[in-house]
Amino acid sequence: MRVLIVDDNVELAENVAELLADEGHQVFVASSGPSAIALMMNDPVCMDAALLDVRMDGMDGVELLAELKTRCPKMLFVMMTAFSRDDRLAQARELGAVDILAKPFAPNVLFEALQAA
Amino acid sequence: MYLELAHDIGFGPADEARLTAARPLVLPHLAGLVDRFYEVLTANAEQRAVFEGDAQIARQKVHLESWLEGLFGGVYDEAYFERRARIGRAHVRIRLPQRYMVSMMNVLRMGLHDILRRGATAAGFGLDAREATQTSIDKLLDIELAVMLETFKEDYDQRARARERLASLGQLAASIGHELRNPLAVIDSSTHLLARRLGDDPRMTKHLERIREQVARSNHIITDLLELARDRAPVREDVTLGVLAQRGLEGLSSSRCTFEVRVDPAEARVCVDASQVQQVLFNIAHNALQAAAGRVEVDVSSVDDELQLTIDDDGPGLSIEVRANLFEPLFTTRTNGIGLGLWLSKRIVDKHGGTIEATHGPLGGARFVVKIPPLRPR
Fold this sequence. Notes:
Shape of chain A: globular
Helix content of chain A: 40-55%
Mean pLDDT of chain A: 91
Oligomer: heterodimer
Largest sheet of chain A: 5 strands, parallel
Mean pLDDT of chain B: 88
Strand order of the largest sheet of chain A: 2-1-3-4-5
Number of domains of chain A: 1
Distance between the termini of chain B: 52 Å
CATH topology of the largest domain in chain B: Globin-like
Number of domains of chain B: 3
CATH class of the largest domain in chain B: Mainly Alpha
Largest sheet of chain B: 5 strands, mixed
Number of strands of chain B: 7
CATH superfamily of the largest domain in chain B: Globins
Structural class of chain A: alpha/beta
Structural class of chain B: alpha+beta
CATH superfamily of chain A: Response regulator
Radius of gyration of chain B: 27 Å
CATH topology of chain A: Rossmann fold
Number of helices of chain B: 13
CATH architecture of the largest domain in chain B: Orthogonal Bundle
């Protein structure tokens, strides 16, 4: 599976990428919404799934989801958040996010979310 | 303040002299009055529940007799009333309902009148002297009651201030809590990555496991702090007992305790706010592990769609004072506790329309029972 990981917490994004790479996924990391869009522009093929942090400066994860969804309608989205109750989560679900991971999350929770995706 | 009150009530040297004079007449009958007092007191189930058993009642009887003797001591200065206020505060600490203070003071008043009526003639008191002494007793008991009620007011004010402090503290704690979850997520994922690279070294594995447990614990503390600020209504969803137990007890273990969890049946479904109920389960089970000498048992079950959580430990149990204050914010008996867990747990259970009770348990320590009824259509 080709997976995009977007989180302004770079260390976390890298750890998640490493965990997924160990599982045989092809991973791409971006630290902001705009850099994720730039990465996608340079990639002619849509990715299978994206893991997006909800709260990021500038463009947040939900805005990014909306943007990516128009470019790649079949892409599957999983959100990551440090906020257990967040108004933005309902919007993410409305836009088609299939799962929401509460930080900190165990690897098996991450893998299950992507399997379901 | 109390001397001013005594002045307003008209309690003066003549009353002091009358009470001193009545002392030899009253003293031999105080033990009988104390017995009568506890007979009346414990006839009421709610009042009886305040006491742990007969041994404690026997101790309280000794205190009451000494308190009654003090009424006829002859010295009623500021120090006297301060001593009496300390006794009032002891009643507040065990959460004796305030209304009983009034009714039970009346039992004492009637009892003392009765002692005077029956013994006055033999003791050489004329009718006028007897009536005047009864009035002096009434005045002093009015002041005593005011002293007792003042301690309840002190306690109420103190708790109101604590709640205000908590509300502002909660806002700050919530924002810090969110910030801490990101680094915790990095630490947690790094331990998983390290575990994969390090292989099977048992010491390494043990320490990585410890880091993970502490991350989970920190995350639960953050959840408590966020709940403190949020105070939200439950959002009920269908969840199995197995999932509730597994997520609620995640990260809990103890090298010195047997930790037994029974979930019966694991696939049974209940409709509750899963994250809130998991928080309740974690907080109580975590406390039990801290208090236990060597054994904790957790039972998660469902009876007629009502969720029941029972947590037993074999620790020292709960004293009457601890039991009375368990669910107060910032109340803790541990040096490393912050005293939010049980308060938040009770708040969550209350919002579900359920109950949470702490009693003496079959393992010799504390037993906590949480019951959460299903949501009934109105």
